[in-house]
Specification:
heterodimer; A: alpha+beta; 2 helices; B: 417 residues; FAD/NAD(P)-binding domain; D-Amino Acid Oxidase, Chain A, domain 2; eight-stranded mixed β-sheet
């Protein structure tokens, strides 16, 4: 698996770190226990095309939004996603 | 048929032409008391324990491909019970005790070999953590020995003890740990379950659940037609989320790929199972002579049953750090299996919120050693509608209540367990 970084070009997988499914969004501070439980623990665990966040730590250190098929590892798009990682952990 | 020295002699005298099928390849009936989805080790063990221990013999095991074609045939065959957290310690020891009597119970040679499992430590802090885990095991009646450097040198003298970054200081040894022949475990359970009347149905993919007006699961839709069931148990680790989604459930699980490796065969070298404590590398030597080893999961969600180069490199680096002399041994085969990575690294064996549907999932990459224990406690749950005491903490709702069992202390990040 190689990822074509929009800033650095095609690079090998070892340069990237995986954060995971880009869909979960951290709930607001006043959210219910159910919403927090859902965000922290439950996953769609998609079998097929999934949008996910990757970090190019071995290159430009940018966050990327990668659309990848979990059944085949085929990558259909890679887009810059500045702050994507931070948005998943800090509201 | 019963296997013994006499059956072997009889078959030998007739040129081995009289052997019968080890188990019956059944066609589905309209209805069973219990339907198990998943013909891997766990599903087949569950069926056998239902029939042999709990008196429920009208049981079917449905398998999408052929039995043992998933993770039961893709692991590194290690068995051990060296866990430190309440919930895990007792459960894995229950499983170990069942490994010790499995071949007699099943009348099948599963090549269970208690050749010992040693976890090496490389720092004072790691020694203390291993001492604590060893003590936890011993006060629970499990064998554990903390070896110092001299004892490890005597046992496995070929290690690179003086690695400047990761000097070996000693190890935690469980002599009762070891390996078992993974395919024979599958065939053994299939053999014994089939003898008791369990229907093993291959090439039968579950495509949906049949529900009554109250939402209770009363059967499954399959590629071979509708099959009614009093209760349905899922034992499909790797695909748990996909099967559960057919019943409208979302699980605290991500599917990840774990690679394993076998080298070309070499003369007997490694006496038992060894793990490198400064990275993630574990190795044993098969009876055929190949080094069987593995390390971390790849770290990204995958259902593809194949991995990538960075982890392969990392695993081989771990091996080289420990045993530089294997550098010229060639890699023979490499493969990947799909792990049900749960959010705390521990399994889930519980009823689901849906009446009639039971879940056995989340085995991360520790499922093989759990095979007999998992089958026993899941059969207990299915037969009696209550958790076995050694599996009572593997609840589905523990993520909601906070009673997680996080052996590695990594938090809710499944790719780190």
């Amino acid at each position: 698996m190689r990822i074509t970084c929009p800033f650095c070009g095609e690079r090998e997988l070892g340069e990237f770190t995986y954060l995971g499914d880009a869909k979960p969004v951290r709930p607001a501070p006043g959210a219910s226990q159910d919403e927090v439980y859902d965000y922290v623990y439950l996953r769609d665990n998609v079998a097929g095309a999934m949008e996910e966040n990757w970090y190019h730590g071995g290159g430009c250190r940018a966050w990327l939004r990668v659309t990848r098929n979990t059944l085949t590892h085929e990558i259909s798009s890679v887009e810059p996603a500045a702050g994507a990682g931070a948005r998943q952990v800090v509201k | 048929m019963k296997y013994s020295i006499f059956s072997l002699a009889r078959a030998a005298l007739s040129g081995h032409k009289t052997w019968q099928r080890t188990w019956r390849d059944a066609t589905p009936k309209d209805r069973y008391d219990v339907v198990i989805i998943g013909g891997g080790g766990h599903g087949l063990a569950t069926a056998w324990f239902l029939a042999s221990e709990f008196g429920i013999k009208n049981v079917a095991v449905l398998e999408k491909g052929w039995i043992g074609s998933g993770n039961a045939g893709r692991n590194t065959t290690i068995i051990r019970s060296n866990y430190g957290l309440p919930g895990n310690t007792g459960f894995y020891e229950l499983s170990m005790k069942l490994w010790e009597r499995m071949e007699q119970d099943l009348n099948y040679n599963a090549m269970v070999s208690q050749r010992g499992v040693i976890n090496l430590y490389h720092s004072d802090a790691q020694r203390d953590a291993y001492a604590r885990r060893g003590n936890t095991m011993r006060i629970n009646g499990i064998d554990a020995e903390l070896l110092d450097l001299a004892a490890v040198k005597k046992m496995i003298p070929f290690l690179n003890f003086d690695n400047a970054r990761f000097p070996v200081q000693g190890g935690l040894l469980q002599r009762r740990g070891g390996t078992a022949r993974h395919d024979a475990v599958v065939w053994g359970y299939a053999h014994a379950a089939s003898e008791l009347g369990v229907d093993i149905i291959q090439n039968c993919e579950v495509t949906g659940f049949v529900r009554d007006a109250n939402g209770k699961v009363t059967g499954v839709e399959t590629s071979r037609g509708r099959i009614g069931a009093g209760k349905v148990g899922m034992a499909v680790a790797g695909s748990s989320s996909r099967v559960a989604a057919m019943a409208g459930l979302r699980l605290p699980i991500e599917s990840h790929v774990l690679q394993a490796f076998v080298s070309e065969a070499i003369k007997p070298l490694i006496p038992g199972v060894m793990t490198f404590g400064a990275g993630h590398f574990y190795v044993s030597q098969s009876d055929k002579g190949g080094l069987v080893f593995g390390g971390d999961i790849d770290g990204y969600n995958s259902y593809a049953q194949r991995g990538n180069m960075p982890v392969m490199e990392d695993v081989c680096e771990g091996g080289m750090a420990l045993m530089p002399m294997i550098g010229r041994v060639r890699l023979l085969r490499q493969w990947g299996g799909i792990m049900d990575m749960s959010m705390d690294g521990s399994p889930i064996i519980d009823k689901t919120p849906i009446d009639g549907l039971y879940l056995n999932a989340g085995w991360c990459y520790g499922g093989f050693k759990a095979t007999p224990g998992s089958g026993f406690v899941f059969a207990h749950l299915l037969a009696r509608d209550e958790a076995h005491k050694e599996a009572a903490r593997f609840r589905l709702d523990r993520f909601r209540t906070g009673a997680v069992i996080d052996e590695k202390g990594q938090g809710a990040q499944p790719n780190l367990h």
